[in-house]
Amino acid sequence: MSEIEKITTEGAVDRYADMVYRLALSQMKNGTDADDLFQEVFIRLVRHIDEMNSWEHVKAWLIKVTINCARKHFDLYWNKNVSSMYDNEAFEEPDMEIEDEHPVRAAVSRLPEKYRLIVHLYYFEELSIKEISEITNQKETTVKTQMFRAREMLKQIMEGEPDI
After folding, report:
1. CB 44 within 8 A of CB 61
2. Higher confidence at residue 145 or residue 71?
């Protein structure tokens, strides 16, 4: 590998910070948790940067680690058993980044996690069905089925039908 192609943490941040943050935000649904997840992912990258052999490898690794960290966050006992103060009508959530951004992103944010992830990777990160199946450890047919169901749900959401 030549000096120009050397993979560094700084280069990875320059290339993939936006992608990791978008994915973190789509999974976490709020900016504060997305910031924490973003930081965790790049801290892990610092520890593993020497194992990376191409920029494609770095990209796939970052996507996989972001997804796994998000799932880990939601599996924690604390996160399963705590309610947000914003669940109370007396408070308004100040962090409405997803809702304010674009109606389609807002609709995607309302999908169940497994569909939201597939849609995000396919449309926003422009990964192929094959790449998504490899990253999520699912069969391509499963990804296609989830994509079909997600599109149907998005159609319902965009047409103003009841919540999913």
Report:
1. no
2. 145
